[in-house]
Design goal:
Number of helices: 3
Structural class: alpha/beta
Strand order of the largest sheet: 2-1-3
Number of strands: 3
Radius of gyration: 12 Å
Distance between the termini: 24 Å
Order of helices and strands: EHEHEH
Shape: globular
Length: 79
């Protein structure tokens, strides 16, 4: 599963964490920086776009780490 982190994406919440753990064996997160990535990535590479909240970060790395932590802590034996 490939998710693009973007300010216009679907809000990532706790229900999505549960869904991700249940549905996907692997997740690839694409992070833009400053002005994001080329629109073709969203159209042809990513399965969906995600955002953390109603704010904009300078890059997608902090959002990716947050999603990684939220999903990983739901895996058996992680903590």
């Amino acid at each position: 599963h490939v998710a693009l982190l973007a300010a216009r994406g679907k809000l990532f919440d706790q229900q999505m964490v549960r869904d991700y753990v249940a549905q996907y064996k692997s997740i690839t997160l694409i992070c833009g920086h400053y002005e994001g990535v080329d629109e073709r990535v969203a159209e042809h590479v990513a399965d969906e776009s995600l955002r953390l909240g109603n704010f904009v970060l300078s890059g997608g790395e902090p959002a990716a780490l947050t999603i990684l932590d939220a999903v990983a802590r739901r895996l058996p034996g992680f903590m």
